[in-house]
Design brief:
The protein has helices spanning about 65-75, 85-100, 115-130, 155-170, 170-175, 210-230, 255-265, 270-285, 310-325; strands at about 30-35, 40-45, 55-60, 80-85, 105-110, 135, 180-185, 235-240, 295, 300. It is built from nine helices and ten strands. It has one domain (about 1-15, about 25-325): NAD(P)-binding Rossmann-like Domain (Rossmann fold), CATH 3.40.50. Strands 5-4-3-6-7-8-9-10 form an eight-stranded mixed β-sheet, with helices on both faces. Helix 1 packs parallel to helix 2, helix 3 runs parallel beside helix 4 (about 155-170) and helix 6 (about 210-230) packs across helix 9. Strand 3 (about 55-60), helix 1 and strand 4 form a beta-alpha-beta unit. By secondary structure, it is α/β, with parallel strands linked by helices. The protein is about 35% helix and about 15% strand.
Length: about 325
């Protein structure tokens, strides 16, 4: 059952959602969750709380990203999603448009496993949009075997950390020009079991799926806290969160045995809609205006892992990430 220890340690939210409606004072998309059997049916209550704002998201076509995409679209901002599969992205946008009535949805082709396409996507966004109010670094992968990107990086570390490191740095000027603005990073409780192996970041000597995933989620938290320190006083806030033990397809690349185990255990996992609540909260709520450098779980700031709070390690990761991706970090004109 190792597959299902991911996010399990702090997870107190595996029971079905209780119906809830957010107060009118909150910018969070108000919703009510009901159940048909064991499947959640979420009804979003109309709001235009984010009209005129622009959100850029990764990982928005499935799982908690898709659920957050729907909830945020219902507040009527402009939303741009980065997606590798253009057909799936367009189908998702059509569905979200029909569900929310928000026609201000766009996509930019981007494969996070290729930093060339990350750079092109960032350039396309900068050329097309005047502002960036929220950057949601949500996409993540795990794989049962070690693979390598075309850039020569181990895939889990590249997609989960390096791609978002490059994307965020290329968009910092746009974020600063749009203050108050926010960066939201999807981390995980797996960071508590992660460790930064600076002698073998790419797992060339030894590869274990969950160790590589935990390292990447720890890197997400270290990146969040270091970026928050670097942007202190700028008006750009940076926070990360643990979504809980969510019923998503992130483990689909783990092999047949893990897929079977997942199908058995999925009844105990929370819905993507429930897992997305903290992402939506951090992206939209006035309650977190000005709050930065925090780790959230169930919409509450909580303790991150001891290693993630090591400022020397965070600075080292920043410097190493900068060296690894230097050829992609030149400012966009």
């Amino acid at each position: 059952m190792d597959l299902f220890r991911e996010n399990w340690g702090q997870n107190k939210s595996w029971m079905p959602d209780m119906p809830a409606v957010k107060s009118p004072e909150s910018n969070i998309c108000r919703c009510r969750t009901t159940y048909v059997g064991t499947r959640p049916k979420v009804r979003y209550l109309k709001s235009e709380a984010m009209k005129g704002e622009t959100i850029l998201m990764t990982g928005a076509t499935s799982g908690i990203g898709r659920a957050a995409f729907i909830a945020l679209a219902d507040m009527h901002p402009n939303i741009v999603i980065l997606a590798r599969n253009e057909t799936k992205a367009k189908d998702t946008m059509r569905e979200v448009r029909e569900m929310t009535g928000n026609s201000n949805l766009d996509m930019i082709a981007c494969d996070l496993a290729s930093l060339d396409t990350v750079r092109r996507a960032a350039a396309a966004f900068v050329a097309s949009y005047d502002r960036l109010d929220v950057l949601a670094n949500n996409a993540g992968i795990i794989s049962g075997k070690r693979t390598q990107t075309a850039d020569g990086f181990e895939s889990i570390f590249a997609v989960n950390h390096l791609s978002h490191f490059v994307l965020t740095n290329l968009l910092l000027d746009k974020l600063k020009a749009s203050v108050p603005s926010r960066v939201v990073v999807t981390s995980s409780y797996s960071q508590f079991r992660g460790h930064m192996d600076f002698d073998d970041l790419m797992a060339e000597g030894s590869f274990r799926s969950w160790a590589a995933y935990g390292q990447s989620k720890l890197a997400n938290a270290l990146f969040t806290f270091e970026l928050a320190r670097r942007l202190a006083g700028s008006g750009v806030t940076v926070n990360c969160f643990h979504p809980g033990a969510v019923r998503t397809n992130i483990g689909s690349g783990m092999g047949r045995a893990a897929t079977l185990a997942y199908s058995v255990a999925s009844r105990f996992l929370i819905s993507p809609e429930r897992g997305a609540e903290t992402l939506v909260y951090l992206a939209s709520s006035p309650e977190v205006e000005g709050i930065t450098g925090k780790y959230f779980f169930e919409k509450q700031a909580t303790e991150s892992s001891p290693e993630s709070m090591d400022q020397i390690e965070a600075q080292r990761l920043w410097e190493v990430s900068g060296r690894l991706t230097a050829k992609w970090l030149d400012p966009i004109n």
